[in-house]
Design brief:
The chain is built from 1 helix and 11 strands; from the N terminus they run H-E-E-E-E-E-E-E-E-E-E-E. The protein is mainly beta. The chain has a single domain, classed as lipopolysaccharide transport protein A fold (Sandwich), CATH 2.60.450.
Length: 179
């Protein structure tokens, strides 16, 4: 073959190859955004302080922290609350928990239990919200409150975190009234 013909065949083959590769529909995929936890910690103990005094103690077997600052406690949570003198006033336990950073609130789910140590009183519910800024707890779920004399039932509750003051929205049950 002559050199002109080889150059022409080579140029033609190159043009066809370029044309074929440029005509393909290339599927452009959007980048995947990771929405899982950025950090994970195990066997955590955290102290929440105010004016150099411990206000709450948090214990959890596992914590997931997300990019937006939210935290998940998939294996449960245990909290202790202290008064101004450092005395333990109440505890909170839940099977799972979630902290919503943007709203500064906590949600406990599963077997949620709050105990007021001084009153020997216990609250049980399947879901409870804690608002650290106002030191209040609330739920729209069924609740049971027991103490040494009474068992109260109801649906919905608003209370102080130590159960020193509470309102059951739809109460039921018998209560001993002192005269």
């Amino acid at each position: 073959m002559n050199t002109k013909r080889i150059g022409w065949v080579f140029s033609f083959a190159l043009a066809v190859a370029i044309n074929l590769t440029s005509c393909r529909n290339k599927e452009v995929t959007a980048p995947l955004i990771y929405e899982g936890p950025l950090r994970e910690a195990e066997d955590v103990v955290m102290h929440y302080t105010e004016n150099d005094r411990v206000k709450a103690l948090l214990k959890a077997k596992k914590i997931f922290e997300f990019q937006n600052g939210d935290q998940e406690f998939p294996e449960g949570i245990y909290l202790e609350f202290f008064d101004k003198t450092g005395k333990l006033t109440s505890t909170l336990r839940a099977n799972t928990a979630f902290y919503f950073k943007s709203e500064s609130k906590w949600r406990g789910r599963g077997k949620v239990e709050v105990k007021n140590i001084e009153k020997n009183q216990q609250l049980n519910s399947e879901e409870l919200f804690w608002f650290p800024g106002t030191r209040k707890i609330s739920t729209d779920k069924f609740v049971t409150i027991t103490d040494t004399h009474d068992i109260l039932y109801g649906t919905g509750l608003d209370a102080m975190e130590d159960m020193s003051n509470y309102t059951i929205k739809n109460p039921k049950g018998n209560m001993l009234v002192k005269e």
